[in-house]
Amino acid sequence: MLNVVIFGAPGSGKGTQSELIMKEFGLDHISTGEVLRSEIKNETDLGKIAAGYIDKGQLVPDALIIDILSCVLDSKQNAKGVIFDGFPRTIPQAQALKKMLNERGTDVAVMLNLEVEENELIDRLLARGKLSGRSDDNLETIQLRLDVYHSQTAPLIVHYKQEGKYRSIKGTGTIEYIFEQIKNIIATCQTS
Ligand code: AP5
Ligand code: MG
Fold this sequence. Notes:
It is built from 9 helices and 5 strands, in the order βαβαααβαβαααβα.
């Protein structure tokens, strides 16, 4: 399996680029944010718990999200590979992902970090908030999401550097230009 972690701050373009990667390389896409929003929409018990965190810009507890990921991954057993979007977000999540993939005879091939300046992230999310209906796309929650990103999620950069899996991508410019860079990196993973 070809497993790609697409990484970056809120609004960095993870979802946008995942769509293009899926089409180009025939990979499946797991966005933990989308899984949680769907649970909220369907008013499930899990959705009710998740909403309490998402609306405050906080992370859903590791144990809960790792269980969800494990279930979703089981449904992807025949996939050519998976794009992990918004997971892992903490060191324990990264360790759990490695274990889950190793148990399935595979591993993360590469972690792609979309780098975008903070002002642009805020502008993008505020602009999206006007249309998206996402409960966390307002200035106050965006700031909290960015704080959480810096304190809990950004340490994964060092983690994946140590694993030799880290690749940095300039996440500004046109969506097509950014995707060209991603495409070139994933193509090398496929042949190695
Ligand atoms: P999640 O859904 O993962 O949200 P996020 O990380 O905050 O990121 P976004 O989805 O907002 O942004 P994105 O990077 O996908 O960018 P996009 O492509 O949309 O998580 C939401 C919440 O769920 C978390 O806060 C947490 O509570 C919970 N959660 C999820 N996963 C969890 C986990 N693993 N553990 C614990 N809790 C978890 O682009 C953004 C905008 O910019 C769009 O409008 C897009 O059109 C635009 N855009 C994209 N590319 C460009 C470009 N190149 N130029 C200009 N505009 C662009
Ligand atoms: Mg997203």
